[in-house]
Q: What sequence folds into this?
């Protein structure tokens, strides 16, 4: 069973629709107690880091997610802002604290020295690492992005990058924790395969 966390900021319908298409049993949860029996967790998000961090605290999902992931070892996939919330700190909407599962900082792309138009919107190639979550996906594949902020890593973990005037973190993995800046649910066959791999192989 895959559990989709609804913080009220995610494209929940799109994720659920794709999982139904893949024949994956899943449920959408709005309360932290529902994570107690989760076997796989997806944390989607659109909008701002600060709003996501606020919702984590207001809903009680912050403590529940940390307990599930760190104590029970449940695989977690963060998507877009959901990936950014895995970081220690974010600066969208003011400095605030993420989940701290990845030692990283989320900053605006043009604050990192990039000079291309933001948001970064559209299809970009990503050079993929050799991991089970990317099985049956070509090593250089195209995924769909929509974002103005990105994570900068402060630790050595599995990572993959898109190039948008500069390297932009597209994927991160640390033990049972996975994050993608792109939208797999909008990335056609590569995205569908990625989601199936997360469900079946992580």
A:
């Amino acid at each position: 069973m895959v559990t989709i966390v609804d913080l009220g900021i995610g494209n929940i319908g799109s994720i659920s629709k794709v999982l139904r298409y893949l024949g994956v049993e899943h449920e959408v949860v709005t309360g932290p107690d529902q994570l107690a029996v989760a076997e796989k967790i997806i944390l989607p998000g659109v909008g701002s880091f600060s709003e996501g961090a606020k919702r984590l605290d207001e809903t009680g999902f912050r403590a529940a997610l940390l307990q599930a992931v760190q104590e029970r070892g449940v695989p977690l996939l963060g998507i877009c802002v959901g990936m950014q919330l895995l970081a220690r700190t974010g600066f969208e909407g003011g400095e605030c604290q993420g989940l701290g599962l990845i030692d990283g900082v989320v900053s605006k792309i043009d604050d990192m020295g990039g000079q291309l138009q933001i948001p970064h919107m559209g299809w970009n190639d990503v050079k993929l690492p050799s991991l089970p979550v990317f099985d049956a996906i070509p090593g250089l594949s195209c995924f769909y992005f929509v974002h103005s902020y990105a994570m900068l890593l402060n630790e050595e973990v599995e990572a993959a990058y898109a190039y948008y005037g500069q390297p932009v973190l597209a994927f991160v993995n640390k033990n049972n924790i996975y994050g993608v800046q792109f939208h797999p649910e909008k990335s056609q066959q590569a995205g569908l395969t990625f989601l199936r791999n997360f469900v079946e192989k992580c």
In short: DSSP finds five helices and 13 strands in the chain. Residues 188-201 form the longest helix (14 residues). The chain has a mean pLDDT of 95. The domain at 2-201 is CATH 3.40.50.880 (Rossmann fold).
